[in-house]
Amino acid sequence: MSQPIHEPHETSPTMDGLIALAEQRLLRPGGLAAGDLERVFAQLMGPSIDAADLYFQHSRSESWALEDGIVKEGHHSIEQGVGVRAIAGERTGFAYSDEIVLPQLVEAARAARAIAHGGNGAGRPLALRDARALYPPVDPIESLDNADKIAVLREIDAYCRAQDPRVSQVVVSIAAALDTVLVAASSGTLAADVRPLVRFNVQVIVERNGRREQGHAGGGGRFDYRELLANGKPQAWAREAVRQALVNLEAVDAPAGTMTVVLGPGWPGVLLHEAIGHGLEGDFNRKGTSAFAGRMGQRVASGLVTVVDDGTLPGRRGSLSVDDEGTPSACTTLIENGVLAGYMQDTMNARLMGMQPTGNGRRESFAHLPMPRMTNTYMRAGESDPEEILRSVKRGLYAVNFGGGQVDITNGKFVFSASEAYLIEDGKVTRPVKGATLVGSGPEVLTRVSMVGNDLALDEGVGVCGKDGQSVPVGVGQPTLRVDGMTVGGTAA
Amino acid sequence: MNAVTAKQDSSAGELDRLAELAEDVIRRCRAAGASQAEVAASIDTGLSVSVRLGEVETVERTRDRGFGITVYFGQRKGSASTADLQPDSIEASIRQACAIARYTEEDPAAGLADAALMAREFPELDLWHPWDIDVERASALGVEIEDAGRAVPRISNSEGAAVQAGETLAVYANSHGFVGRERGTRHMLSCALIAEDDAGMQRDYWYDTVRAAADFMPAAELGRKAAERTVARLGAQRLTTRQCPVLFVPEVARSLVGHLVSAVSGGALYRKASFLLDHAGRQVLPPFVDIVERPHLARGHGSTAFDAEGVATRESPLVAGGVLQRYVLGSYSARKLGLASTANAGGIHNLVVAPGSDDFAALLQRMGTGLVVTEVMGQGVSIVTGDYSRGAAGFWVENGEIAYPVEEITIAANLRDMFAGIVAVGRDVDPRSHILTGSILVERMTVAGE
């Protein structure tokens, strides 16, 4: 489960270099230059507009998939355009175009600013926003020959099947994307980012006496295919997928009811994402619709608990050198020793709440509005030995892997679904149990954390977070945790 | 000429241009050596206005385009897509799709659907009703919805109301010479409110979605319904762990029908990733349950004359007398299974669960004591094994009467047993989806709580 955090890349591009790359990829094809953007702001700004921004984006992505022993699918996609936003008070006007040329930009600007009355701003001259790059501006699609991509898929298919004769189906896929963005804002911010993202997935189905179970594993991050596939990582994911599926073949019905739950390190950190992460996004707190609204400075967790949202980890899937509003990402402490310490903000919500942006302004694409979103959300390590945590439990559930989760921000109720779990009996991990959904209450669950392990791990780089219909890549992590009392949704008495 | 006619004219012309582009791209793919090619192209335009606490919050004008190309070089396949229709992007996509097909491997099941299956008749499905609404009127409508909701006692805050108007133009064309054009509109009203008492806040919402704005429920009624649902959640309790009957309201019941569709869909079957493998001709639901696919319903949310491969759709039973009549197949999965396409490439096109005789109140009486589920949370459903375990909220019912709201519980069972254990289907059909079902009463599930 554990994976070391990447070392910073040696060849850090400068913001000047990134801007030049972005101009070349985004503006020049339509006959635009950075200087033209001030003309668009002249259209966009006025006495009634507080803030405005332009978000130029070019994305290129590909995926390859093997199934039934055949590499049968390959797909390439291109997406480009510009989003234009104007803000007056709490009002936002938004329009976009998939043609990056001046007339379309001016038209989008006119549509976006039509919302405005009230407000007080005028634009400032654009100036470079400096930020350290957390990943190299490489095109991962070009980092490997197509023939080599095919070879990897075939190799992993054969590798999975060689692990165990009960493996009956293998689906393997790899995917890569390169996102180039340029942000210009009326605050004067001019920033660019070139964001690689790769991902590997393997899913197996095993079959024994008519019973079928599945297992899956994978990983990824902001680097190229060579790094993704290095050091036997795909083989390790393949072994993990087969292992999980075989464990599930032995699984008995999960228990039902409230019990002590020990969560494993890494991906089970999806607990934090659902239980407290969303509830600490600025928009819900500005509007007073979060169960955490107005609770800053209050105790919301055991004193053992410190949780951060950290967009600055080099190479991680959830990391950003600058967010989609050009704000450099940050490490924001959300809960410090059990006390609520901070919100995640974009510029609009920060301004309306009189706070500072935290580099959490994100959007799925130029065709979507930015909002406060998580990056990599994790709990810092504690002092307990994971073995000692398990030994401390008389009867309970040990959940080591999960599917996704969901939360109701307003009442704080959240769920997340275990895909690999075991019974704990008299301090020992015994039988595997079937997947079950765990439910809890965000503002309460972390008060019941009674032990925190010393084994912090981040996930492997596969997380996707959805909010208001927008998906963005994220990371989660945590050490082994003991939670005294969570509801486990099994079927066994 | 009035505004509506003008709009229809321009959309028809735009659809023709999209179709010409699709045919041109197919010719270019063939010229590049592809033995078969297909294109799916669409243009979505819309206006979305949201209001909150009586003021406009966001105004979004949307225009999303998609152009997807698939080429076959014999049995090898490649695909590419672009979100803009500029010549450079189209050209790059043709090149990429062809390049990819040089690396993918021979797949005996690959290729277009059979030419003989292509749709030849295009019945008028009454799907095109542009909503001529501007920002001012959309804002006023949003405020009317939200005001009606905020007027309900104990509503303390709002996430706002939204008004959305949308139009889709879509073309599917392939190298059999098939060109299918579709125009459809889809509009939505929604409202999400917050109520508060000493125990904390609760949120709930309601929405309506229609093909023609004239079919919307009255705006104020929508706001009030959102408010009443929200207030009804105040004072929610937990339950102790137990087994009991569960009544799924229609908007949740349709997710159960969705799980059935997933389990009998070609992709899950040929991968042997379904708990309903080899179940065609077998009893999967009780004998009183009939489910029919009706792709030509006027103004239907899933109505279409042809599927995502151009195959003609037609009315066809899925379940009769509780017995599974067929699978849900596109041509690819059909070939993998040695069967014929059921015109379900891209999914199901209106599924109608025959309504029973009970309304919701009668279903409560019939259940007696048990759980009404109004919301399910999380992804705890495995189509491979049928294991079902999800977070839930709703109401505890005693002697046919709603006793109190409940939350922070799970409901669990195996889908196979849930399907076999359906006791009744209501006549309270929710019209807002391509899956049309009333409430579904399931005999017994495990509820986990305190």
Walkthrough of the structure:
The complex is a heterodimer of chains A (493) and B (450). Chain A is α+β, with helices and mostly antiparallel strands and 493 residues long. Chain A contains eleven helices and 23 strands. Chain A has helices at 15-27, 34-44, 102-113, 146-163, 225-229, 233-249, 270-277, 282-286, 347-353, 386-391, 442-445, and strands at 51-67, 70-88, 91-97, 127-128, 167-185, 189-208, 211-221, 256-263, 307-310, 331-336, 339-340, 361-362, 371-372, 376-379, 395-407, 413-425, 428-433, 436-441, 449-452, 457-458, 463-467, 470-478, 481-489. In chain A, the strands form four sheets. In chain A, strands 1, 2, 3, 4, 5, 6 and 7 form a seven-stranded mixed beta sheet that branches. In chain A, strands 9, 10, 11, 14, 20, 21 and 22 form a seven-stranded mixed beta sheet that branches. In chain A, strands 8-15-16-18-23 form a five-stranded mixed barrel. In chain A, helix 4 (146-163) runs parallel beside helix 6. Chain A is globular. With 450 residues, chain B is an alpha+beta fold. Chain B is 25% helix and 36% strand. Chain B has nine helices and 17 strands. In chain B, the strands form three sheets. Chain B has a six-stranded antiparallel beta sheet. The radius of gyration of chain B is 24 Å and the shape is globular. At the A-B interface, strand 1, strand 2, strand 3, helix 4 and strand 5 of A face strand 2, strand 3, helix 2, strand 6 and strand 13 of B. Strand 3 (91-97) of chain A pairs parallel with strand 2 of chain B, so a sheet runs across the interface.
